[in-house]
Amino acid sequence: MNEMVPKQVFFTKGVGKHKHKLQSFELALRKACIEKFNLVRVSSIFPPQCRIITKEQGALFMKPGQVVFCVMSENATNEPNRMISASIGMAVPAEKDHYGYLSEHHAYGETEEKSGDYAEDLAATMLASTLGIEFDPEKNYDERKEIYRMSGKIVKTRNITQAARGDKNGLWTTVVAAAVFIL
Fold first, then answer.
1. How confident is the model over 39-66, as a mean pLDDT?
2. In 8, 151, 166, 170, which residue has its Cα 20 to 30 A from 24's Cα atom?
3. At the fourth CATH level, which superfamily is domain 8-182?
4. Does the predicted model carry a pTM greater than 0.85?
């Protein structure tokens, strides 16, 4: 049986502006260097033993028109100066044979840092609850992050986030962030 478990992943992001919403999405995908693929959105499991590579390394394994699986977040607005963001958070367990989590978050009015921290928190919290790490969900993420790290069960968290302000002249502005899998 052909197992479709990704062996590698890369992270990418982009922003696009155009008078048509679809075209602004296409331009955001171009900035992220994933416009030439048939993207299939999947849910948020970081596969066991999956290796993180650069976007440039990932491009070496891909061909135009290829069906590519990804976890993607996107957001768009045509409201002048409206802040938008799209973010992917990641949490990887110390145990390499255990799966981790990816999370998608998109928001209005959040900075890149706030949106990224939120997405990273989502992924880390999902992984922590799966691994049985006890934590107080009412504590802020920085406090919980320290608990996660001290447990020795979560080895790495990160995020990739694209934020932008809506075009001042009302063009559609689209932001994307993605974790792109290589089988």
1. 96
2. 8
3. Pyruvoyl-Dependent Histidine Decarboxylase, subunit B (3.50.20.10)
4. yes
